[in-house]
Specification:
By secondary structure, this protein is α/β, with parallel strands linked by helices. The chain has a single domain, classed as 2-Layer Sandwich (Transcription Regulator spoIIAA). The chain has seven helices and six strands. The protein is globular.
């Protein structure tokens, strides 16, 4: 398990079998991204060593989220191998373009992970979908989301 990570543009935490990534409404700052990558690099080796420990993921990125270079870094070894073990990812964004692109990619890909786009306002539905296969305390998740919002600048997370 990872200790909660809070910064002004990206936060992360794990509650039970749910791992959460939350971005503010602005681009993720390079310094925040570097600190985030250091934080998750401590947990991904555990996922590789014990695939049963891999959580489901809730990502909330109201608008921009991470950029192409950050996505490439996230998908490079060893993190990329650990990400391939994910069973479900709920991605909440208010960008209809991003949700549509994700849906199209899902139709065309043979990814082992099940990715489902949601609006930010549909976060509770995303949590319901993730709870079908993972165990986490909803009250603890909502409390952590409130803590994340307090740390994020320009956030519309909750």
């Amino acid at each position: 398990m990872m200790a909660p990570f809070h910064s002004p543009t990206i936060c992360a935490a794990q509650v039970g079998q749910l791992f959460m990534n939350v971005c503010g409404s602005r681009s993720v700052a390079a310094s925040d991204w570097a600190a985030y990558m250091r934080a998750i690099s401590n947990i991904t080796p555990n996922w590789l060593a014990d695939p049963a420990s891999v959580p489901v993921v809730l990502t909330i990125a109201p608008s921009e989220g991470i950029n192409a270079a950050q996505r490439a870094e996230l998908n490079s070894p060893p993190n990329g191998a650990a990400l391939k073990l994910l069973k479900r990812v709920a991605f909440c964004t208010d960008s209809a373009l991003v949700r549509g692109a994700m849906t199209a990619l899902l139709w065309l890909s043979r990814a082992r992970v099940t990715l489902k786009p949601f609006r930010v306002s549909d976060r509770d539905n995303a949590l319901d979908w993730l709870a079908e296969i993972a165990i986490f305390d909803r009250a603890d998740v909502l409390a952590e989301l409130r803590r994340m919002q307090a740390h994020l600048k320009d956030s519309a997370v909750t």
